[in-house]
TrEMBL record:
<dbReference type="InterPro" id="IPR036179">
    <property type="entry name" value="Ig-like_dom_sf"/>
</dbReference>
<feature type="domain" description="Tyrosine specific protein phosphatases">
    <location>
        <begin position="114"/>
        <end position="163"/>
    </location>
</feature>
<dbReference type="Pfam" id="PF07686">
    <property type="entry name" value="V-set"/>
</dbReference>
<feature type="domain" description="Tyrosine-protein phosphatase">
    <location>
        <begin position="1"/>
        <end position="159"/>
    </location>
</feature>
<dbReference type="InterPro" id="IPR050348">
    <property type="entry name" value="Protein-Tyr_Phosphatase"/>
</dbReference>
<dbReference type="InterPro" id="IPR013783">
    <property type="entry name" value="Ig-like_fold"/>
</dbReference>
<dbReference type="InterPro" id="IPR029021">
    <property type="entry name" value="Prot-tyrosine_phosphatase-like"/>
</dbReference>
<dbReference type="InterPro" id="IPR000242">
    <property type="entry name" value="PTP_cat"/>
</dbReference>
<dbReference type="InterPro" id="IPR013106">
    <property type="entry name" value="Ig_V-set"/>
</dbReference>
<dbReference type="InterPro" id="IPR003599">
    <property type="entry name" value="Ig_sub"/>
</dbReference>
<keyword id="KW-0378">Hydrolase</keyword>
<protein>
    <recommendedName>
        <fullName>protein-tyrosine-phosphatase</fullName>
        <ecNumber>3.1.3.48</ecNumber>
    </recommendedName>
</protein>
<dbReference type="Pfam" id="PF00102">
    <property type="entry name" value="Y_phosphatase"/>
</dbReference>
<dbReference type="InterPro" id="IPR007110">
    <property type="entry name" value="Ig-like_dom"/>
</dbReference>
<feature type="domain" description="Ig-like">
    <location>
        <begin position="165"/>
        <end position="276"/>
    </location>
</feature>
<dbReference type="InterPro" id="IPR003595">
    <property type="entry name" value="Tyr_Pase_cat"/>
</dbReference>
<keyword id="KW-0904">Protein phosphatase</keyword>
Amino acid sequence: MTSAVLVKCCKYWPDDTEIYRDIKVTLIETELLSEYVIRTFAVEKRGAHEIREIRQFHFTGWPDHGVPYHATGLLGFIRRVKSKTLTNAGPMVVHCRACAPSASTQFNFTSATSAGAGRTGCFIVIDIMLDMAEREGVVDIYNCVRELRSRRVNMVQTEVECKGEDTVSQPAGDVLLTQGETVEIECTFETSFPTAYLFWYKQEGREAPKYMMQKTKSSSKWLETRKSPEFKEKLFEVEALDSSFHLIIQDVDVTDSVVYYCALRPTVTGNTKTLNKNLWSKDNTILQ
């Protein structure tokens, strides 16, 4: 592993089978995704009759400097780790043991950085805050970082990393899709706009979000649906209710992680190209 061209960590896992003293480690499966890799190993001790399965989650989408440009990859990674973690799976390994798990704080992941502080700290804080937001409806980033740094020096190292945590926002839908299933994603919102424009975007891997469709609100009624030619024949529909939208996708034809964005604008100006560029500006409400 390198950071700013410097080698910070040697590769410590095999591509096939390796013997480490009396421990045999065999790579049995590799799942390569756009921003992370999942590896599954069989671990066996000489003389023992038990083979244990170890799963490694390796996030590859973090640049050498700063933070990821989009938070969606990291959020999807965290969700994937949680979805793969069984309640009786036993302890997880963290590169730096920032603090011991308690009844209210569980670090259910494996992560590694060059010093075990900066990127690992960001990962831990985001994971804790997502759980806190879901459980209590609030987040406390400052005190979480302060507590981590009191137990592990330099945990969350830079200002930009701290800002990165503070600006993480979840997309409208981030789900693992299964071939052929029907998926329904809900977005709730509050708006008093007399007119509004709703846009749905789809993002796969590291590709730029693709425009799917648009709905227009006039006199409290959502009117026509405009679909992108690329998605015109796809089996999806959006239901606009009083305070939420439902994106319903039938017969899903992908198996990788796909992120759906929902954006609401009070006005729309310029041509489609200009609109797409300005979709993420401050006058948009990103529905979560």
